[in-house]
Amino acid sequence: MINTLKLGQYNIPQQFILWQKSYTCAIIPCVQLMPGHILLLPKRYVSNFCELEAGENHQPENPDSIDQIYVHIIPRRKGDYQKNDDIYFVLENYDKEFAKQYQNTISSTNSFSNAAIEIQGQETKKYKTFLDQFWQEEYNQQ
């Protein structure tokens, strides 16, 4: 179990970690595009996915870019965006919005406030409970 996770240059407290295995974990991001949105990322810092070039992975010229591999898992619902592909425009600005929200929720000591950790921790617990119930139902059906 890790106490703090790094997502690029950002420290993610343990309370934000929804799920983890030996090499991978899932977090509830401080910017959620839809209810149920999570980020799946390696525990160790990885900036390249397979053989991707830096320009394919992130935008090094953009100071708001998160210099690490992560995957969005976003539940979709009919009509959640006016046009189905509109979500891709939102994703293009995700790193910038994440950086802005991250800066708004951390204290002057460059760490999350106790209140922010408590709120995010409660959200994470809800997701964990849901996943536990889901897996329990899946195993009982087999």
TrEMBL record:
Per the UniProt entry, what species is this protein from, by scientific name? Ichthyophthirius multifiliis (White spot disease agent)
Q: In the record, what lineage is assigned to the organism producing the protein?
A: Eukaryota, Sar, Alveolata, Ciliophora, Intramacronucleata
Name of protein: HIT domain-containing protein
